[in-house]
User: Fold these one by one.
Assistant:
Number 1:
Amino acid sequence: MSLKRIILLLLFLFISFPLVSFVYWYFTPSFKTNITIIDKTVLNEKCDEHKSLNWVLNYKKYCKPNGELYSLSADYFGFFPKENKKYVIAGLEQLDTLSLDSLAEKSDMVYFTDTYGIYYKEWDLQASQTEHSEIIYGGLSDHDLYFLKKLKSPNKLIITEFNDFASPTDSIHRAAFENMFGLKWTGWIGRYFETFDTIRNIEIPHWLKNNYLNQHNKQWPFKNSGIAFVRDDGHIEILENYTHLTYEVPVIRTLPQFQEYYNLPAEMKYPFWFDITYASHANTIVSYFSILTNQKGDSILNAYNIPKDFPCVIQHLDSAYNFFYFAGDFDDNPIAMLTSYLKGFQFFKHAFYSGDNIAERKSFFWEYYRPLMIKILDDHYSKQ
């Protein structure tokens, strides 16, 4: 075959694949299931905090009881941004007890994707802010806890993740959530930053740097990448690459039996927000975070009782109830919803992210979140 024909064939395949892939997806059977999504942190129409979940629902064609696909911008409870800086709050807090009971009875599962909320400066400027301001809406409420208690049964599924019971949730509601599911937050959260040079990296919150300066003799000696740890009382500790870390980003390590069951890699870098939460013996650890430190890094972690290894994915699956906690901001990934209409698109996933860029998060979605959520949803649907 001539080079020209090979090029034409490749061009034809490149052009025809999306159409064939969409047709294949379109004629794939759909599965009706009633899913309640809670997201209190929707700043704009992108709905980043629950987009990854909707991608999986759309790709697998898990649809509403009426046969319609779940809408990214409409089918959730929480904060709804509108035009001209207007908004509507339509969370579980707006429902009375009878309505909550009815919703719980109809729901097959609930996913609390984010309860961090929306803040005045953030909302006014329509962008993530690096300074604290008063909250408009956020945190776990009495209504949320009531609904979770109603869903805690053998035939329902509860999924929660990072920041669902940390700040701004108050200590009373946090303790109720912890007791309900056998968890205990240490008070620490953390995040990887590609550089701690505040001139080059505008994502570093001003409060993080200011707190660190006030707590460490006005010194900010960091220029490399690394991990910032934030305690609930505002205390900051930073582990810098080379200075304190032997590997700059947290690593998710999955136990062998769950690598096979959930189709997960043995190790996965995770360059985003996480929390340090322990689980009771009634729960099972699927994956755990590892912070790879040298002697200097160990001394800082030990001084503040920050563990190097701690749970990442916690599950409880038995005859009492079905529950998952993801100790990271798992549902927030920079993905395109359009690809969820293309069956088989995952075979080309490596073309859309670079393994050399340690800060990118698309690989986490494709290699970890996507297979994990597909298996969780498929298992739950098969039990219904």
Number 2:
Amino acid sequence: MRYRQGPVPPMPEHVPMKKLVTLMTATLLLTMPAHAIVGGGTPQTEGVARAVVTIVGSRGNFCTGSLIAPEVVLTVAHCVQPGADYKIVDRGPDGQPQLLNVRTVAIHPGFNMQAMLAHRATADVALLQLEIPLKGKSAVPVGAPNIPIQVGSRFTIAGIGVTMRGDGKSGGAIRVAGLVATGQPGTFQIRLVDPLTNGVRDGIGACTGDSGGPVFEDKPDRAVLVGVISWSTGPNGAAGCGGLTGVTPLTLYRDWILQTARSWGAAL
């Protein structure tokens, strides 16, 4: 697997991929019931969710990605840092989990990990090139949110993360949730909340494993991917989930995404 960014920092010892796949299959793909999006969400198998995939790393982490071409997955940079191997896990046409190799990882050169960890705006965007096209999925169009973004604007998020923080067995199924923009949304960052709780008490929102998941905005003819899930908080900004969902909008990064994917020969 080739990287298109920077030196490889020291990382913990790798988990054998065979052992990792066994673990991820048991905890993410075969656990019933399995959920994503803390606080519930709606299980989905069609529509926008048909583009969602699971990304697993040899360090034991898992994230969400979106298929934007048969061989290209969009996710966030902090999920696919150098120093580990990554694969795509998805259910095949027969319902059995299949593992796909990643050929190349491209991380946006403007990404800053410290900024992301502090919930500040940064280019938290990355692309994965698969060795072979992923069949049985539908690629989604990459766009940008309508500008200016208004407080109260509605977005749909999707992910495979956990519904209970710290409980990996509660993740694995694709779920979606409708959230609204709060604070001062712009081209650098959007903060979303559950419209029923407004982020002051436990509500629906992204959680562990949902990072990299798609954020959709309804356009006149179809839903368009306009951002990626970057981070989350608990109510009132506390550590956890169910409060704010931090989104990196693609307004400033769409050109880089399209150019990189096309340099790999992808048709978007």
Number 3:
Amino acid sequence: MSVMKRLSTIMQAKANKVLDKAEDPRETLDLSYEKQMELLQKVKKGIADVATSKKRIEMQAQQLQDQANKLQDQAKQALTQGREDLATEALNRRASIAEQLTGLETQHKQLESQESNLVAQSQQLQARVEAFRTQKETMKASYTAAEAQTKINEAVTGLSEEMGDMGMSMQRAQDKIAEMQARASAMDELTASGALPDITGGTDTIQAQLNQTSRSSQVELELQSLKAELGQSSTPQQLPEATSGEVAGEAQPAGGESN
């Protein structure tokens, strides 16, 4: 296949695809129905034209018949007056009119036959057009319903995809929130334990340890109080050893001098 032929095939395929996409079957069906109605109108007009021609021939034949009857009367009157020559002339004219009447009668029969055929064709075409109209409306309704269903399915599919994306976004947001909450809690614990300095300046490391010791002493006191209420013996807590400085201070009486 030559390059030009291949290019022509490709262009034709693309053009057909564009036309198929742009074509609405409902519009095509309506156009076909309109063409059939135009054809039916032409057939009916043809019937009317034939009927008009037939009527014109009938009128012309009637005029000729009236002339023939008049010539017949003139021939009789001429004979009664002894004018055989006038009677002969009248009869000759009447014979010529009779020939014309015969020709008109032949045309009239042809037009009658043509009219009958056209009427039969018109009736058949009318029936086909009505059947096509019913089928057309049914097909249009089916196409409209299918089109609506397709749009609904596309909308539902798009909504499902969007909901899936939203679900993933919400899951990511929840994960980040949980991560930030855990990080904040861990930072609070580290700050409270003194592992991290409190940048607000509220407490320093030494104060944090003192606070921790104070909390432990308070818990121990509450524990001893509960044991006392329950009648349980408690072992005296051993006081922490005093520093050498503190012992020396306690050994010296207040206001006294060392020996």
Number 4:
Amino acid sequence: MQLSFSDSVFIFFSSALLLTILGSPFLIRLLKKFGVVRKDERDFSFLIEGRLMKKGTPIMGGMILVVVITALTMLFNWHRATTYVPIGVFLLSALLGGADDLLNIFARSSRPVRTLGRIGLLIRKHKELKMRVWYVITFPWQCYKRFFYLLGSHPGHGIQAHEKILVQFLIGIIIAWWLSFKLGWTSLWLPWIGLIDVGLFIIPIIIFLVMFMANAVNITDGIDGLSAGTLLFAFGSYLFIAIQQGSRDLAFLIATIMGALLGYLLFNIKPAKYQMGDVASLGLGIILTAIAFALDRVVLLPLIGGIFFIEIASVMVQTTWRVLFGRRLFAMAPLHHHFEMKGWDEARIVMYAWTLAGIFSAIAIWLSSH
């Protein structure tokens, strides 16, 4: 018997939900066994009163999302035109995020970033000619690293910010190639106006939004249930749009992601049994952006992903304020930590965020049909 569109969507959703629920207890035990847990000496957020209770919580719980979403899609929804690139970049992001999570736990601190003045001195006075040549050749790279250091990215244990940005840039190029050259997308849809052809300018837009959303979702993943619940609203909006457009493959992919997220959320609400970690948060931001472009509703992303935009904007404002005025605007960034520092309970912050996300999603769905 031929399944209807809605029946298939429900099957993908419920299958992902069930597999995530069944696999999560095993993953939690595995992560604890190998010590993949939060450690207070490597997490500045433990400065917030009450967060020490999170010490020992597994932090790569997002692995279950990566496995379930990838497996169900590759087995039952694998199509060159629609799903293989989103899943490919999702896996690439998972490798990047997973490596960062593990290094944050087990690696030693990175070496301090040399000042440009120090490098200039070595170029002029190092006793070995080959080293002076080496410092000259690598000077642009050192400037690039120093730029992120000045923005507040201090050397830590994991993959450094300047390294993450390069990988995210590569992922953005892959998605831009897929959308622009394979699918022929060069237009942006605007409500009440329709399609506007922007030509090859679509490529930098895609790359910027991929990098932006990867970091925005990653930054939001700081309180039990915050990122997962907000992502459910965001993907739910695009599921409604995909069904409205009759885009079966993307609807099945989104339903799979939502089912896995809901199963994960059952173990992530306070007190969390595990936390997502970079292994999934980076990739979920990227795949959300890819879906937004594929459904030609990327202009709604700042509304559908409004909480993520607010969170990363708070970090950008905090950094800018500190550079310009030498002090902080917020007690701590991103914004959810500011509210924690002000004495708000985690559950209160999450409920407000979910409520706002629901409002944003409702408005975006309404705009989508205009």
